[in-house]
């Protein structure tokens, strides 16, 4: 590796390490634009859905008044945050995700798109995980046979509970993958159930109105109330499944990458304790959503669909009896 490559790699490693040590934001932070301190950005470091990243919102006023508009690029914004393109994995704006290409993407130097009224213009920047080497790693010396089968942590000791950490992350990841499959199946059931609930929630037709007595009509009104309530619950959990925290692609991609690159080969990395907490938290979140969705489905079938069908069946029997 050339001296220039080594120095650049060391600099990026230092930037990533500094970001890793930075605490997560508790609220939006105001960051001045470096060469125009009277202008600023709103920044949220390490939000829950992007634990190894930052979300940047550029106020409309900054877009309008920044004197060098063509130089308002992502590279410029990163410099104001003390970051560099080489530290970025990918970023997302207006629903479009851009691959950083190891800092070589031409989009780093494209002027940022002006805000669209009524649309979130925030830029979600996902950084390389602290564990991800920005330079080709140097193979560690062979460990003695009595040493644990884990690569050493650069610059620090191997945590005493490292075996448990690897096992817990491995277990959590496999549980996440299973829960996501269960969620996909449960989502399909909920969509089908929601369609049936909507079809059942109707007024009684003319024949049913004539044949039903007061008790039947009251029972049908109650059944329709249950149909509305269960449909509302189903819709809520479908929304959670489609646009909730479990749909955060950057976070899940980071976990998948960490699992494949470090957990499978049992490669120790800086921040493994934090990673274990992230895996555990995400696993609990996905499993809780599945339990809630499954409960919503069971309630919709028993309290909504079945109840309505029983009332309609009772009224239909009276309609048939009237025709005889």
Summed up:
With 324 residues, the protein is of the alpha+beta class. Helix content is 54%, strand content 11%.
Please render the helix and strand layout as text.
Blueprint: H1 3-21, E1 29-33, E2 36-45, E3 53-57, H2 60-65, H3 74-80, E4 88-93, E5 96-99, E6 123-127, H4 162-200, H5 206-211, H6 214-243, H7 249-263, H8 272-323
* Share in β-strands: 5-15%
Instruction: Tell me the count of domains.
Output: 2
**What is the C-alpha radius of gyration, as a whole number of Å?**
28 Å
Number of strands: 6
What is the residue-mean pLDDT, rounded to a whole number? 80
Could you give a short account of the major beta sheet?
6 strands, antiparallel
Distance between the termini: 94 Å
Strand order of the largest sheet: 1-2-3-6-4-5
Order of helices and strands: HEEEHHEEEHHHHH
Using the alpha-carbon principal axes, give the shape: elongated
- Quaternary state reads single chain
Structural class: alpha+beta
Helix amount, in percent?
Answer: 40-55%
Low-pLDDT sequence parts: 131-157
Total DSSP helices: 8
Give a structural overview.
The longest helix is centred in the C-terminal third of the chain and has 52 residues, at 272-323. This protein has a six-stranded antiparallel sheet. Strand 1 and strand 2 (36-45) form a beta hairpin. Mean pLDDT is 80; it is low at 131-157. Helix content is 54%, strand content 11%. The chain contains eight helices and six strands; from the N terminus they run H-E-E-E-H-H-E-E-E-H-H-H-H-H. The chain has 324 residues and is of the alpha+beta class. Helix 4 (162-200) runs antiparallel to helix 6 and helix 4 (162-200) packs antiparallel against helix 7 (249-263). It folds into two domains: 3-127, no CATH class; 162-323.
